[in-house]
Amino acid sequence: MEEVYDFNDVVRRMLDEGQDYKFIINKLKKEMTLQALIRTRGNQAHAAKMIGANRGSFKTWMSY
């Protein structure tokens, strides 16, 4: 079963661990990218649209 976290708690914990803004944003992008790819069965164009990114940005996010 998938664990569900309160977003504010996750951000607080990451800040408590000393993570900076860029790290936190990159983690969020990576997780959104992964979840979108899973939901679209790997279709990058549909996954990008799902999260409101263009395909170029989406491909960049996949490299994080």
Please, could you describe this protein's structure?
With 64 residues, this protein is mostly helical. The protein has helices at residues 7-16, 21-39, 44-51, 55-62. The chain has one domain: Arc Repressor Mutant, subunit A (Orthogonal Bundle). The chain has four helices and no strands. The two termini are 26 Å apart.
**CATH 4th-level superfamily:** Homeodomain-like
The top level CATH class name: Mainly Alpha
Structural class computed from helices and strand pairing: mainly alpha
User: What is the residue-mean pLDDT, rounded to a whole number?
Assistant: 86
- H-E string: HHHH
Q: What composes the largest sheet? A: none
Our count of helices gives: 4
Instruction: Quote the beta fraction.
Output: under 5%
Count of strand segments: 0
Poorly predicted regions are none
Rg is: 13 Å
Helix percentage: over 70%
The figure for the number of domains is 1
Q: What is the architecture at the second tier of CATH?
A: Orthogonal Bundle
Shape: elongated
Spatial gap, N to C terminus? 26 Å
The CATH topology name reads Arc Repressor Mutant, subunit A
